[in-house]
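Bug report (template v2)

What were you trying to do?
Predict the complex of my protein with 2-acetamido-2-deoxy-beta-D-glucopyranose.

What happened?
Run completed; filing so the output is reviewed.

Input:
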Amino acid sequence: MKQVSNMANTSNGSLATLLILITISAAIHTGAAQYPVQSQNLISDNVSVVEGETATISCRVKNNDDSVIQLLNPNRQTIYFKDVRPLKDARFQLVNFSDNELRVSLSNVSLSDEGRYVCQLYTDPPQEAYADITVLIPPGNPIIESREDIVSEGNETEITCTSMGSKPAATIRWMKGDKELQGKSKVELTYDKMFTVTSWLRLTVTREDDGVPVVCIVDHPAVKDFQAQKYLEVQYKPEVQIVVDFPSGPIREGENLELTCLAKGKPEPQQVNWVRVDDDVPSHAVITGSDLFIENLNKSYNGTYRCVASNPLGEAYDDYILFVRDALTTTPIPTTTTTTTISATTSPPDVIQDAAPSTEAAAHDSQAGAETQRSMDHALIGGVVAVVVFAMLCLLIVLGRYFARHKGTYFTHEAKGADDAADADTAIINAEGGHNNSDEKKEYYI
Ligand SMILES: *[C@@H]1O[C@H](CO)[C@@H](O)[C@H](O)[C@H]1NC(C)=O
Ligand SMILES: *[C@@H]1O[C@H](CO)[C@@H](O)[C@H](O)[C@H]1NC(C)=O
Ligand SMILES: *[C@@H]1O[C@H](CO)[C@@H](O)[C@H](O)[C@H]1NC(C)=O
Ligand SMILES: *[C@@H]1O[C@H](CO)[C@@H](O)[C@H](O)[C@H]1NC(C)=O
Ligand SMILES: *[C@@H]1O[C@H](CO)[C@@H](O)[C@H](O)[C@H]1NC(C)=O
Ligand SMILES: *[C@@H]1O[C@H](CO)[C@@H](O)[C@H](O)[C@H]1NC(C)=O
């Protein structure tokens, strides 16, 4: 019996300690520690409220001994005396009145409601706690403007974003695509005590920036996801690329050639021009739009064919060097054909387009026999390498198995005890026991 009451006492004591701790931490949390004299029993909190919305002022009392509580406005007029409202302003409404709290709401808050509200407790001496009401005024929609509608590649442009009439001042951030950029901001205080923030972003554009959105993000406590955006428009001189539609391999006499010219730019090049460097385009060549078509090739068509595109920003071209080889008239020895096919696939078809084509092709045609010889050598070397690699793989597999078995056993020693036993001691005992099922477990832990 005595023991039981003792235990009850102890738990009561610790409960009291706990309560005190909670009280202290709550006091620190609400920031009341800044008013050590008044706030021993009476607490209030500052309030931030968006203009037009409702603010709630709360006066809370701890360990109240029936003292009277009242709420005063910044002019020290009584808003509420206990649960009675002497002030005529009906925007003040009682939300909660108890021994421990007087909670009052103020609806349709305007800027003139800002100030220090006072909670008063009629103790001896009287206590006061303060609730500072701050009215937030959201900025108007951000306005984004760029200096130029369209910018030339490599040029610098400037984009301006303005956030008007907020309280406090907003901050402006910039994003280009998903990259954050740094702008320069200026804050102005207008006659009605509102803030207007302007930010300038300067950036040098590339053709990749064309169509990329630049976003001005306005951060303000009264708004969320407030932004404005503008798409960059960048003009650039054309890029030109010649694509061989036909044929895909080396070009021989009697074949047809078809080239397409791809030209991109902003503004889009109106048309492309085909020319032959240092010569005339063959008279029977057919040019349709960006395509060049030459039928029944012969060696007199050798030369550099150029596609030229231009827009107001400039001109660009790409060259194609045509190199017509002998027709495959003489029935070739089968091995020679194979060799030619191989060299054709290993070297890209546009090899002819690059420098020094004559030596390349001459080698193909005249040294076909030597190449057959070389490919046989290659086959021999390939075989030897394959055998060596296979032998090394075998060795690796054997070594791998050897190590895997050892590692597995090791893991099992440690893991098994820990897994099966309730505590560390049992684990050790278990581990020293038998290894009988270690082989099954091994697989598990690798
Ligand atoms: C309330 O705001 C005032 C400034 O307006 C500040 O000095 C005070 O520390 C704040 N009180 C609390 C409890 O945060
Ligand atoms: C007033 O507050 C007390 C304690 O915070 C709570 O128990 C009570 O339900 C509240 N009353 C109303 C009407 O909100
Ligand atoms: C809110 O207050 C303003 C003046 O501050 C008044 O013009 C407006 O009518 C009020 N709105 C409501 C819903 O009471
Ligand atoms: C911008 O680009 C135009 C070409 O469109 C050029 O004439 C001008 O000089 C450039 N301006 C600057 C500031 O580089
Ligand atoms: C190549 O073709 C053109 C026109 O088809 C022809 O005039 C010329 O004689 C030919 N040249 C050779 C070497 O066959
Ligand atoms: C064209 O190139 C071939 C390469 O096989 C060469 O034999 C021929 O003489 C060249 N013809 C002209 C007109 O350059």
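What did the reviewer find?
Residues 368-420 form the longest helix (53 residues). The radius of gyration is 43 Å.
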